[in-house]
Amino acid sequence: MIAVIYRPGSDAKTEQFFTEFDKLGYMSFFSSLFIITGDLNIRFDRPDDPATLHICDLLNAYVH
Question: In this structure, are residues 39 and 8 in contact, taking their beta carbons and an 8 Å threshold?
């Protein structure tokens, strides 16, 4: 199962984005292979940025 996500870089990183992103977790129950791809427009090269920390916490929750 593959989820393709695009969040425009010009849009603010709102709590709503993170809440909706977190809802993707239910998809992992339907498939043994679950891939999230796309462009989140979050700076993973800035590990101390609050948005980076938040999205990394959400992604780590999907790792089995």
Answer: no
Cα-Cα-Cα-Cα dihedral sign, residues 54, 60, 61, 62: positive
> Could you write out the three-class secondary structure of the chain?
CEEEEECCCCCCCCHHHHHHHHHHHHHHHCCCCCEEEEECCCCCCCCCCHHHHHHHHHHHHHCC
Tell me the sheet residues that pair with 6: 39
pTM above 0.85, yes or no: no
Most confident range (mean pLDDT) of 30-34, 47-51, 57-61 is 47-51
Quick check: 37 and 24 in contact, CB under 8 A?
no
